[in-house]
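stuck on this:

***
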Amino acid sequence: MAERRLLLVEDDAALAELVRFHFERDGWSVEQTGDGEEALVLAAEARPDLVVLDWMIEGVSGIEVCRRLRRREATRDVPIIMLTARGQEEDRIRGLETGADDYLTKPFSPKELLARAAAVLRRAQPSLVGDRLVHGGLEMDLGAHRVRRDGQAVHLGPTEYRLLRHFLERPGRVLSRQQLLEAVWPHSEDIELRTVDVHIRRLRLALGEPDPIRTVRSAGYSLDAEGLA
């Protein structure tokens, strides 16, 4: 198994050393910086498998680093865990809306951070078998352009198919309406955000119960593993 690469963006030297110690002991290769601009350069030079990102750092803020990583094609799908002292609900929502996959507030347990890292990686890596995407009971045959749930055919329109594919390629990740709009609609600047909600409803109706798409209040939608159980 190839060594996993962590980009740790944290300007507290003692905390960074603690996190580095636990990840390296778990078999990770760790690259660390406390500067937002340098973090963006490092991520561009060698795509990490995971980014652990503090909100309050030097130069470019952690939330802006997260936003820019999500905008870049090369780092759009890199899992990101925000590690911060900002624990208010509105801060967590803002972090998720910007593209973070998880949010851990300080003080924290290094073992919990490792566990969350493992969970984020599992969610970020759907099972790709040949030309099929498989997650839970859902199976998408990319070559035949067909979808099945628990062995039963699911009939989708072109937009719902693209929506589902985007979810299947990012299982468990909370995707904002804006992110879905930009990914699924070629000319998203001409389309209203509520259009996303309309097609989400159609996709839910086609997939049936239990509903596999979780609504995250004020943040967006997620393909939920529990809904596929």
Summary: The mean pLDDT is 85.
